[in-house]
Amino acid sequence: MFRTLRRALCVAAALLLPLAGTQSAQADVGTKAAGAGYWHTSGRQILDAAGAPVRIAGVNWFGFETANHVVHGLWARDYKSMIDQMRSLGYNTIRMPYSDDILKSGTMPDSVNHDGKNTDLRGLTSLQVLDKIVAYAGQAGLKIVLDRHRPDAAGQSALWYTASVPESTWIANLKALATRYKGNSTVVGIDLHNEPHDPACWGCGDTSRDWRLAAQRAGNAVLSVNPELLIMVEGVQSYNGTNGWWGGNLMGVAQYPVQLDVPNRLVYSAHDYATSVAQQPWFGDPSFPANLPGIWDKYWGYIFKQNIAPVWLGEFGTTLQSTVDQRWLSALVTYLRSTSTDGADSFHWTFWSWNPNSGDTGGILKDDWQTVDTAKDGYLKAIKAPGFAGGGSGPDPGGPGDPGGPAACTAAYTVSSDWGGGFNAEVKVTNTGSVPLTSWKVAWTWSGAQKVTSMWNASYTQSGASVTAVNAAHNGSVPVGASASLGLGGAPGGGAVPSVSCTAT
């Protein structure tokens, strides 16, 4: 995909948890923790060492691939506190981007604050810091997927090698990391190379460009020294004239699957983004966002749906500022399958990013490296794996019996565009009470014959001219004084603005 500052800062974190609702996982509780040990695949699922299905549901935490040679944010916080916060929010895996620079002898991290924080990292090399992060993540119950993001800190590379970092170095370093963490099942897999793109090809047979063949060479090399690891293989940009996101095109798998020497270790990985990263033709399709599932099916979803192999959406993200991006993320979360409905029989994912300093997406954390962007985190609530505390915004301080007072809200209806035959409108809900909202409902009655044709960020029912809309899973929690909104399309246009009632709980 197109790389801006986000690409300059690439790290992914994903934490793995077995899914509730699977009998094998529940039966194993009390004898061995869910998700324990190394993992393997069976059809489209990932299974833990006991054979219970697990779901990767995590975040990217980048920095080791940049000139800092260490995860970002350690200038502001202790690494342990960030890992604890990830877990408290319900993330179970960290995708950890790195460049081959950190495997050079004596590479030291930059911009780590040791004043009352990160004191145990003082004087350590970048690899030794990575060891510390892996150790604490494992203690906290998180899994890590190492992501070879760049050959060096200078930037992305279309192919897995460059003039200064040949294929031999790439494979040697992959093997070195696989050996370093052999026997430590916190590191559950390796993403072989981030976002191969043109001129990389899939199945063309040219060994200098064919990413599928290179992934086989590298994957088998890794498995030769650590046969327990999952091998994550991303897509390319173009296949048979069809273009997509960098690393996001896995259409070639149908004809040219990756073949590894060790069975049940292969996971295919795709990336998908919204308009804050770059425009794609499907965002302008008149049927958007209804067209998106078909797009995802074509590029990578079919692999899961045909039970070929597990599919991991290793990166996806957005600033969430535009309505298009909000609708994209809502549709994508639905496509990835909710944990409450499908458990671990779902797509795996790591959101881009934990870091707030990703230029074209921002992060789960805000710029202070402490405050959670509850809107972004809330969208992901339905697809987080079970077993962690939190779930987006932490415990609700205004729940039943709380002395803070009754929940209250108001709603404002605004028409954003009207072309006669139809219109778009927004309903903004504001928490006017003294306790946080956990959910809200709005209702209005049009004076004319208007009908809702589409709605995002809420679900609705309509009876005659009366409409009732209830928050979506990601935007029901609204802090005191804050707002949430829904958008809708309707027809015909030209109607009067109705008054809207708001009911809060």
Automatic annotation (TrEMBL):
It catalyses: Endohydrolysis of (1->4)-beta-D-glucosidic linkages in cellulose, lichenin and cereal beta-D-glucans. Residues 402-505 form the CBM2 domain. It holds the Pfam family CBM_2. Residues 1-27 form the signal peptide. PROSITE patterns: CBM2, GLYCOSYL_HYDROL_F5. The keyword Hydrolase applies. It is an enzyme of class 3 (hydrolase). Its EC number is 3.2.1.4. The keyword Coiled coil does not apply. Keywords: Carbohydrate metabolism, Cellulose degradation, Glycosidase, Hydrolase, Polysaccharide degradation, Signal. InterPro entries: CBD2, CBM2/CBM3_carb-bd_dom_sf, CBM2_carb-bd_dom_sf, GH, Glyco_hydro_5, Glyco_hydro_5_CS. Belongs to the glycosyl hydrolase 5 (cellulase A) family. This is Endoglucanase. It comes from Streptomyces purpurascens.
